[in-house]
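User: Structure tokens for both sequences below?

Assistant:
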Amino acid sequence: MTRDEILDPTALPRRTVLAGAIAAGGAALATAASAAETPGVLAGKVAIVTGGTSGIGAVTAAALARAGAKVAFNGRREALGREVEARIRREGGDVAYTRADVRDAAQMERFVAGTLARWGRLDIAFNNAGIDLPPAPIADTDIAGFDDQVATNLRGVFVAMKYELPHLARAKGAMINMASIGGRHAFPNIVAYGATKAAVIHMTRAAAQEYGREVRINALAPGAIETPMLERVRRDWQVTTEQLVAPYPMRRAGTPEEVAAVVVFLASDAASYVSGHVIGIDGGDLT
């Protein structure tokens, strides 16, 4: 299938959309938005966000703080991390940035331990850190780049889960892992990214089975979200936003704030019976 065919909604198979499913999806989004807008809905909770120095991670760290949580976040880019930390503190949030790389297990173990030392508990984990690389056919994919995506997007989530889950289990907490629409559907020229995100979905479902009585564990599968990553996609693919979102019934890209609202919902008691699911944040895409 060519790139043009991928971007042409008429060339993609579609499922029949039932009115009941649409209504249920609308209700879920309304609940998520309501939870995110409720001050104090996460009061007394402690949250970790990986990859919180920009994009969805930074916006979600701020949203969790506004909802009342104490927030620890990490990332490799210290200058950006300090900017995000200062911004959230100016808004009144209780937040702490740590320079830590999800690819380094020792750094992640110290990051989680530092959060526990600072606040004494862990209730919420949003494992968001991830990278992408310019698209290329499999035969032209750089092996070092492939390995880096696996180390960040897959192993990094696993390492975070490993160190977070014992503390989340004690708190009867919630974990949200960042997958992607690319982990649910196969797209050409992004084999490493898609494979890592599909594996995150599997790890999420497996962990939800293992820890079902102690931790609610879900994954997110965003479509096109207005972030620096989407800017790179437009540049590398030489496409417009309109072309990218053509398969989406809503015909628009999402915002980091819309993703953050779902994270707050899943972290809150409003989602007390939701676990083991992959939540699409994709403008209704059912291709």
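Moving on to the next sequence.
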Amino acid sequence: MMLDATLARDILGAVDEGFEDQIAFTEALIRFPSLRGAEKPAQDFIAGELERRGYAVDSFTIDIDRIHDHPGFSPVVGVDYAQAVNVVATHRPRRETGRSLILNGHMDVVPEGPHEMWEISPPFVPRRVGDWLYGRGGGDMKAGIAANLFALDALRRLGYQPAARVHFQSVVEEECTGNGALACLVEGYTADAAIIPEPVDERLVRANVGVLWFDVDVAGHPVHVREAGSGANAIEAGYRVIAALKDLAEAWNAEKDAHPQFAGVHHPINFNVGKIEGGDWASSVPAWCRLSCRIAIYPGDDPAARAREIEAHLANVLADDAFLGNRPPKVTWNGFFARGYVLEEGSEAEAALARAHGLAAGSALSSFVSPAYLDARVFVIYAGMPCLVYGPLSESVHGFDERVSLASIRRVTGAVALFIAEWCGLEPVAGPGD
């Protein structure tokens, strides 16, 4: 049922009333350097905020044994999950008359790089400049986590709560495996729909690629540099591995016409060497090199089949290499092993979001396809629920001086609040003894 115009106006007003507190809360989240393996302090903080609001909170560590055999699991080698904590807060109404909802966001952020290369402010020191809020993770996606929470707060400010079960999720591992959102699903947290306010410029993600992460270990033959010609330089051999993988990526891009969602995208399959390590001594020909790589795959692709294709391609291309032909590089799958997804058009959830966005932003909701990973694949593929990835305008995500638009955060928070009100329905806030 569509919202009454007066109620919709009141909800947007309640978002405005709490907006300064919301941005201060987002700044507090940015101050936590919640890098992989170090998210727990930030997760403890948000768990405390949720408990203070009276929600039932479940904080749990990702248990690899519980998710290892799930088809959505991404392999991890040498990664300690002892501090990998998810937080799920649950609201239950007095009488469930609406449709249930998951409000999901990820607390983990990517490494910030050299601090001296941040020009506006150090990465974990939030700063407002005009319409922009700067700081690592501000856009990706702590502003989204705060938007989910303060959308619920805005409804409470008016004396309402959702008339349906709502799970608020703050997860980890989104930037590297997706195992955090998957662990929530395995723990039994499902709903009729989900929203993830990722930094996607107030648009709806229609589809996104899957992603594979892998390490390639290249062996060399070390000798003293005075005899360099008699050895084999593992780092230089790594260049030949990179060239072979780039060629494969271009071959995959040439397949895009067979994938309708991505046929109009210039370069949907992006390959990246994100990290190189190698060698031990400047005067020794390096004996080893490790390339840490990422490549995309199309929705519908089987990660295992594409992984075999990568291994076979390297074996074939490097078979005639004077050195690598006899000592082929070793590929280890360590991170994303994730399928892409397609959000089917025409769902009631999408229609409700379109109405909410129209009221909050004053424009029609547009959609696009993304050549990046999103946790939405967990909900769409493995839970059969519509997952709406829709969040604020951001710039320089994963780069220096990451920033998110304050005006856009306000509009997105309003849209999320309006969506909750229509999708879940509303009832008066429970009082003492209710």
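User: Anything stand out in the second?

Assistant: The radius of gyration is 23 Å.
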